[in-house]
Design goal:
The protein is built from two helices and four strands, in the order ββαββα. It has helices at residues 30-54, 88-113, and strands spanning 3-10, 13-21, 61-64, 81-84. Strands 1-2-4-3 form a four-stranded antiparallel β-sheet, with helices on one face.
């Protein structure tokens, strides 16, 4: 698995933000590596400031994909890069929660249209 240069806080320990692809472990695509690391550093700084203000710890994830390469567009499923300061189980839980909320919102919207 590739590693980013961004450090993150977790229970007082420092660790590197995790980088991988959705369906297979691989480093970030070279063309996106610098950009994603720069964005992750900025997101971590924002999360650190939020923690200072609220006392709560915040996680983040940045996902990047080419619209024309998603499975819905006929591309290879899983052709997505992500970087996060969360541990894998926390990231999976957050993604499941996000997906459930998005699906519920879409269903409510469809019901309102009918």
């Amino acid at each position: 698995m590739g590693r980013a240069e961004t450090s993150a806080h977790d229970d007082g320990r420092r660790r590197r933000a995790r980088v991988s692809r959705q369906t297979r472990e691989a480093p970030i695509e070279p063309a996106l590596r610098t950009l994603m690391n720069d964005l992750a550093r900025a997101l971590q700084q924002g999360a650190d400031k939020a923690t200072e203000k609220t006392g709560e710890r915040y996680g983040f994830a940045l996902m990047m994909f080419a619209f024309n390469k998603t499975a819905s567009e006929g591309g290879e499923a899983g052709a997505m890069n992500y970087i996060s300061n969360a541990q894998r189980p926390d990231m999976i839980a957050a993604l499941k929660e996000l997906l459930a909320n998005l699906e519920a919102s879409a269903a409510e919207e469809a019901t309102r249209r009918n």
